[in-house]
Design brief:
By secondary structure, the chain is an alpha/beta fold. It has two domains: about 300 residues, FAD/NAD(P)-binding domain; about 140 residues, Cholesterol Oxidase, domain 2, CATH 3.30.410. It is about 25% helix and about 20% strand. Strands 1, 2, 9, 10, 11, 12 and 20 form a seven-stranded mixed sheet that branches. It has a six-stranded antiparallel sheet with strand order 7-14-15-16-13-19, covered by helices on one side. A three-stranded mixed sheet has the order 4-18-17, with helices on one face. The radius of gyration is 23 Å and the shape is globular. The two termini are about 35 Å apart. The mean pLDDT is about 90.
């Protein structure tokens, strides 16, 4: 009998190197988890072999906030832990403004950033989608598919006194579009023998669903270094184990989901993807304000706050408002005369060639591979949006009848700390300015796909996770249809 030694079965890279895979997936975050689930679902009856590799280790079996022993302070420290988070060296690309500190980093952990993410599931505005190579009708279909699968709801703050009052104030004072934030949490009641043990959504839920549909092989602590290509078609990957042994894994189709910072080194070391690989790095410029509100203005059972003010045609940024109680279900909450509200603005950032992820020509990491080097700055257009966000943050506070923050109380967040990086393997029709086509396939390499934040062509103003998952489902459907067609021809 094969006894389990951890909460998910996995094998070694050495064992995987003995097999021939139809599909290999690199990464277990939002993109990789989605691709695995969707392919297992769509190809459940097909005689194919699927494998998935993860550079990080098994740390938590669910979203950290589903763990009763973890509260918000613990989550913050986990985000900063050098055991799970890789920090990157950054060059300041020059502009007229004073240099801005940069802190780009990436979780390297089973489940990726989705073990900590903030659950907001905002669709890209049609103004932003118009710049993408994917038809808006397709995006609508796959957004709906993703929202259904992720249990996206606007009920998180339903019945909350503070939510109702703040929404009313905003709508009556210049922000009529203010609404409840769509959030990926599962309100399904325990019934008919179905137990709901994972309130906050993560890619680990997708991997669990895949496990119960079709067998697959998983290796952790397996860092992918390059893809293998023969005669214009992908043939597999090279990966290094924790003890620094390289292995070749054979596959007919490879999907890279190693992230905005993880995919470019793999492609660059493989010599594929063209001149756009690693370039057009974007994120969201983020302006933070912390507002004080008096408890006496609300009902005794006040609830929580989760408000969204979406972007508009003439306002290239969105606002979100949150109170901290939502993240601290077991933490003691002493009565206080004042509460704190986070008012955050996410602004669109230009996709510029000079913002990039590159390989350091000199420095090597512990595996002897080139270190990643990031060059990033805000353009003058980006800085103008940041100024607008700061000004409108004060107007929003005034609209809510809250104390208007002073100059030092509206702060630009250090770029990289919002984990909204996109664009380094962006989709597009032109191989000179994009890495993949509209279905995520790398230009010029048959069978090689990318499915994660890095394919988003522009940052837009919405949190990227919902769009990433929607596009990953679309890419998976394309792969499964191509594979089914190929299998039919064989028989």
């Amino acid at each position: 009998m094969d006894f389990m030694n951890s909460w998910i079965r996995h094998i070694s890279l050495e064992e995987m190197s003995q097999n021939d895979y139809d599909i290999l997936i690199v990464g277990t975050g939002a993109g990789g988890g989605t691709v695995l689930w969707r392919l297992c679902e769509r190809l459940a009856k097909e005689r194919i072999r699927i494998g998935i590799v993860e550079a990080g280790d098994l740390v938590v079996p669910t979203h950290t906030q589903n763990l009763p022993t973890v509260n918000v302070d613990d989550v913050v420290f986990m985000w900063r832990s050098p055991k799970y988070v890789k920090h990157y060296r950054t060059n300041y690309a020059s502009n007229d403004a004073a240099p801005i500190p940069i802190d780009f980093h990436q979780p390297v952990i089973f489940g990726g950033g989705m073990v900590h993410w903030g659950h907001s599931c905002v669709r890209m505005d049609p103004v932003d989608l118009a710049e993408w190579p994917v038809p808006i009708g397709d995006m609508d279909f796959y957004y709906k598919t993703a929202e259904r699968m992720m249990n996206v709801t606007r009920r998180v703050a339903a019945g909350s006194s503070i939510q109702e009052v703040i929404l009313q104030r905003l709508r009556e004072n210049g922000f009529p579009e203010a609404t409840d934030t769509p959030t990926a949490v599962d309100f399904t009641a325990t019934q008919h023998g179905r137990i709901n043990s994972s309130f906050f959504f993560s890619s680990i839920l997708l991997i669990a669903r895949a496990l119960n549909v079709k067998p697959f092989d998983l290796a952790v602590n397996a860092r992918t270094t390059r893809v293998l290509v023969e005669n214009g078609h992908v043939s597999g990957i090279e990966a290094i184990s924790r003890d620094k042994k390289p292995y070749m894994l054979r596959a007919k189709t490879v999907v890279l989901s190693a992230g905005t910072f993880g995919n470019p080194p793999i492609l660059l070391q493989s010599g594929v993807g063209g001149r756009a690989v690693g370039h057009y790095l974007a994120n969201h410029s983020t302006v933070d304000s912390f507002l004080k509100i008096r408890r006496s203005e609300f009902a005794e059972v006040s609830g929580i706050l989760r408000v969204l003010i979406p972007r508009s045609a003439d306002r290239p940024f969105q606002f979100q408002l949150v109170t901290g109680d939502y993240y601290q279900p077991f933490k003691a909450k002493p009565l206080s005369e004042e509460w704190e509200i986070w008012l955050g603005a996410y602004g669109k950032v230009q996709s510029r060639y000079e913002n990039k992820v590159a390989l350091d020509p000199v420095r090597r990491d512990e595996y002897g591979l080139p270190e990643v080097q990031i060059s990033f700055s805000y353009s003058e257009e980006d800085l103008e949006i940041i100024r607008q966000m700061a000004a409108l943050s004060r107007l929003a506070a005034s609209a809510m009848s809250l104390p208007v923050p002073g100059e030092g109380e509206v702060c630009l967040r250090i770029p990289g700390r919002e984990f909204h990086e996109t664009g380094t393997c962006r989709m597009g029709e032109n191989p000179e300015t994009s890495v993949t086509g509209r279905y995520g396939q790398v230009h010029g390499v048959s069978g090689l796909f990318v499915a994660d934040n890095s394919v988003l062509p522009t940052s837009g103003t919405a949190n990227p996770t919902l769009s990433t998952i929607a596009l990953a489902i679309r890419t998976s459907d394309y792969i499964s249809e191509q594979l089914k067609s190929s299998l039919k021809k064989q028989f």
